[in-house]
Specification:
Mean pLDDT: 86
Structural class: alpha+beta
Number of domains: 2
Order of helices and strands: HEEEHEEEHHHEEEEHHHHHEE
CATH class of the largest domain: Alpha Beta
Distance between the termini: 24 Å
Low-confidence stretches: 1-7, 337-365
Number of helices: 10
Shape: globular
Helix content: 25-40%
Strand order of the largest sheet: 1-2-3-5-4
Strand content: 5-15%
Number of strands: 12
CATH topology of the largest domain: Aminoglycoside 3'-phosphotransferase, Chain: A, domain 2
Radius of gyration: 21 Å
Length: 365
């Protein structure tokens, strides 16, 4: 592994969302939800702080004593309503072999879209990642790879940009030309900027190669810590199923490894596990590069309706972690560069303050 002096980077994924409260859900919509669940709603908790959507998402208590988890998308964030519709359709078809939260009811009324799911007590993994939690997510991704994908999704091929046309090409061109610029308000990461400046051409070439990567497996496409719930049995339940598509079985899981790598885990054993059978180093690196380029791109586009400014911090952190793992895998280094008048950045060296000492994992089955 090549050591790097990297910025201290972090994001509290329990406090990223800016959601509306339950009090904004009209009384008629609340009554309709109670009817769909065969029990009236008597209390709703404050919305969870995790995620990036603006819709309500939180625990709701029913008159019969049950607790359910409810997502409520308002009319003024119309695309989130379509996301809930897609998620409901996906969840209805997922087998129990794939850990998830069962759908209980879906309500559409007065422009509002609600999805009620079973309530599950659990924790968000990743802070830091443990071998046990990564093993649990690996097991969930392996189970998902064995699911026969519904024909509904055969026209949704994998790719960070499968829903955004040629934005991928535009971002690649920006990285290759060195014209990708991040507004100061979106965060500061001198190490990342220097690495992209030094190795942008190779990063762009790798990301470009990701266009040819295909596969027949059903993918969640948005596996990150705040979309995972480790339940009391130790199973990693994947949540928020509104970006499903088809691709290589290992793509969901590989997106978690950059964060674990930054935290000090040796991710090599997982890359050699069964899920990655047939995946070459260059193909894996192409996917990592595609993630980095997506997160680096679109810096001057407006955020989608309802999305919080914390999304920029998330994108910066994801780009940093993907490039850091690529740098270690490909031997990329950064030479001394000017930071400003009278200031220089030291040549990349090992820095133990950014890595936790954790015993390497044993390869999962």
């Amino acid at each position: 592994m090549v050591g790097h002096r990297v910025a201290r980077v972090s994001l509290d994924y329990t406090k990223t969302a800016r959601r509306h409260g339950w009090s904004q859900v009209p009384a008629g919509v609340v009554r309709a939800l109670g009817q769909a669940l065969d029990s009236a709603v008597i209390h709703a908790s404050p919305p969870v702080g995790a995620g990036f959507g603006g819709q309500y998402a939180g625990d709701v208590r029913l008159a019969d004593g049950r607790r359910v988890f409810v997502k409520a998308a308002p009319p003024w964030i119309a695309y989130q309503a379509s996301c809930l519709e897609l998620e409901a359709a996906v969840l209805r078809r997922l087998p129990s072999s794939v850990p998830h939260c069962r759908p209980l009811a879906r309500v559409s009324r007065d422009g509002w879209a609600l999805l009620a799911l079973e309530h599950v007590d659990g924790t968000m993994p990743g802070f830091p990642w443990s071998l046990e939690h990564l093993d649990a997510v690996y097991a969930s991704c392996l189970a998902l790879s064995r699911v026969r994908a519904p024909t509904t999704y055969t026209e949704r091929p994998w790719g960070p940009y499968f829903h955004r046309g040629d934005r991928h090409g535009a971002d690649i061109r920006e990285i290759r030309s060195g014209s990708c610029r991040r507004p100061a308000a979106h965060g500061d990461n001198p190490w990342l900027d220097a690495m992209v400046s030094a190795h942008g051409a190779e990063l762009a070439d790798l990301a470009d190669a990701s266009r040819t990567i295909t596969g027949p497996h059903l993918l969640h496409q948005d596996v990150r810590p705040d979309n995972i719930l480790v339940d009391r049995r130790g199973r990693a339940r994947l949540v928020d199923w509104n970006w499903v598509c088809l691709g290589p079985a290992w793509v969901d899981f590989v997106g978690l490894l950059p964060m674990a790598h930054r935290q000090g885990l040796d991710v090599t054993p997982w890359l050699e596990a069964r899920l990655f059978t047939g995946a070459t180093d260059d193909v894996i690196d192409a996917v990592l590069a595609a993630i980095a380029v997506k997160m680096l791109g679109g810096q001057h586009e407006p955020l989608p309706p309802g999305m919080p400014e914390t999304l920029w911090q998330h994108k910066l952190l994801q780009a940093h972690d993907a490039v850091l793992l690529l740098a270690d895998r490909r031997g990329w280094k950064v030479r001394s560069m000017e930071r400003g008048p009278g200031a220089t950045r030291p040549e990349a060296t090992a820095d133990s303050t950014d890595r936790r000492s954790v015993e390497p994992a044993t390869a999962p089955a």
